[in-house]
Design brief:
alpha/beta; globular
Length: 240
């Protein structure tokens, strides 16, 4: 339901977006996922069963999940994806290396910047009693994300033992925050990329679809072009 509503809105507004889809979702809902690909949207890797890499426990287990998700995307699109987004935005010590081995061009899971792409590093050393040591930069680009630009923590109500995520925020308030971040970028940077993370089951509800529609139009009023993440990276590199 939510995915179809979003597809209709994007078609009406002539927006090409990036959909990060778990392999299990592709294989379970082939008609919906085919509709996403057929509409010309970029398909990115999002795990097999939405497994956070840091919880998989070994390099071999993470590689198996990556490869299974890749097989699903290749069956859907006929090609390998350019981009990866970690489920829960939580990388393991092996993630960057595994992505490079499989030919990914970019990741979109980290928060080391807000508007500026940067090279992912490998081999950072973090210790509670020693200064942080940065590993070498790699050929993998990062298109950074932010929890504040994600619909899930703002809108989804989660209640379980020892944890409460209130969610259910007023759509107009979230919209003003999202537009405010875009306005700051336009006012202070000559070039930047702002990335919004939206889930069909979250933003696809009626009143939130109105928020998404208004977001698209207000971003355009600010002079921001809307495009897939792969295209945004290409534009960035061409101007760098």
């Amino acid at each position: 339901m939510g995915a179809r509503r979003i597809l209709e809105l994007l078609a009406r507004e002539r927006v090409r977006a990036t959909w990060f889809i778990p392999g299990h979702t592709i294989d379970s809902f082939p008609a919906d996922c085919h509709a996403v690909a057929a509409a010309g949207h970029e398909i990115g890797h999002h795990g097999w069963l939405h497994e956070p890499p840091a919880e998989l426990g070994s390099r071999e287990a993470e590689a198996a999940v990556l490869d299974r998700g890749l097989e699903s995307i290749r069956r859907l699109t006929g090609s390998s994806p350019a981009g990866y987004r970690s489920p829960s935005w939580d990388l393991s010590p092996w993630t960057i290396e595994l992505l490079l081995e499989r030919g990914f061009r970019y990741d979109s899971s980290l928060m080391g910047d807000d508007y500026t792409p940067y090279r992912c590093r490998s081999g950072d050393l973090v210790s509670p009693d020693q200064p942080f040591v940065r590993g070498p930069e790699t050929q993998l680009w990062e298109l950074p994300v932010s929890w504040s630009l994600d619909d899930y923590p703002h809108f989804e109500h989660i209640r379980r033992a020892g944890f409460l995520q209130p969610g259910l925020m007023r759509g107009d308030d979230v919209l003003e925050n999202w537009v405010g971040d875009a306005r700051w970028m336009v006012d202070h940077l000559e070039q930047g990329i702002i990335t919004y993370t939206l889930h069909p089951q979250v933003v696809g509800r009626g009143h939130r679809m109105l928020v998404l529609e208004r977001l698209i139009r207000r971003l355009r009023e600010l002079g921001i072009e809307l495009m897939s993440m792969e295209e945004a990276l290409e534009r960035w590199l061409a101007k760098a």
